[in-house]
Amino acid sequence: MMIRQKKSKTLIRQFAIGGALLVALTLCFGRFDPFSFTSVCTRCGALRYSGTYFLPLTGRNVEVHEKHHETGTLISQFLTEKGIVGIHEHNWVFCQGGGHGIRCALGHGRAIRDGVNDRDLLDLFEFVNEKGEAAELKALLGRFFDPVLTRQVQYLARNNASAQALGFKNSIVSVREEWEFIKRHYGPAGSDRNP
């Protein structure tokens, strides 16, 4: 009987050690498959890179850790240096991400993200700001930070860059004409006429 109890205790101990070893190996070598994604702030244009890590091999979305890294962009630096945007709580809009079983998740912020480091767009904002057109700059920024309307402002920036390359420097008239056309054609920001 004593031998049987020893074998039973030894067997239980072996199962416990084996189970603990299996859990340890899972935690050490299991894939902590993160869902990684980018977001853009619709107030200043800063970018945020994030990763959410989940417990491996559980079959459930058990979040273990989340990390974020924020970076400035050409547009966010311009807006903060000129005092156009002060200290604020970021309004993050999802751009794009993938991982943890998702190949490619697309969000509304992608179009804005495409412009936050665009030199032509920065030149347009600087140009309008230098001309003292505060109301126009505010309207441009309102459209730029709107995921539906941002492409209009990026188009305007490309045309402004092309005009300056052809020698039409400092021509607020041509920018204003294009801007008025966009407002007439698409309506005010937030209207239902926007594409």
- Number of separate helices: 7
What order do the helices and strands follow? HEEEHEEHHHHH
Structural class determined from secondary elements: alpha+beta
Q: Major sheet: order of its strands? A: 3-2-1-4-5
Distance between the termini: 84 Å
Main sheet: strands, sense, barrel: 5 strands, antiparallel
Oligomeric state of the chains in view: single chain
| Number of DSSP-assigned strands | 5
What Rg is obtained from the alpha carbons, in whole angstroms?
Answer: 27 Å
**Share of β-strand residues:** 15-25%
Choose one word for the global shape.
rod-shaped
Helix content: 40-55%
Low-confidence stretches: 190-195
User: What is the arithmetic mean of pLDDT?
Assistant: 78
Task: Give the tags.
alpha+beta; disordered C terminus; 195 residues; five-stranded antiparallel β-sheet; 48% helix
Describe the structure.
By secondary structure, the chain is of the alpha+beta class. It is 48% helix and 19% strand. It is built from seven helices and five strands. The chain has helices at 2-29, 74-81, 110-113, 119-130, 134-144, 150-165, 172-186; strands spanning 35-41, 47-54, 63-71, 92-99, 102-106. It has a five-stranded antiparallel beta sheet. α4 (119-130) packs across α6 (150-165), α5 (134-144) packs across α6 (150-165) and α6 runs antiparallel to α7 (172-186). It is rod-shaped and about 95 Å long. The termini are far apart. Residues 190-195 have low confidence and may be disordered.
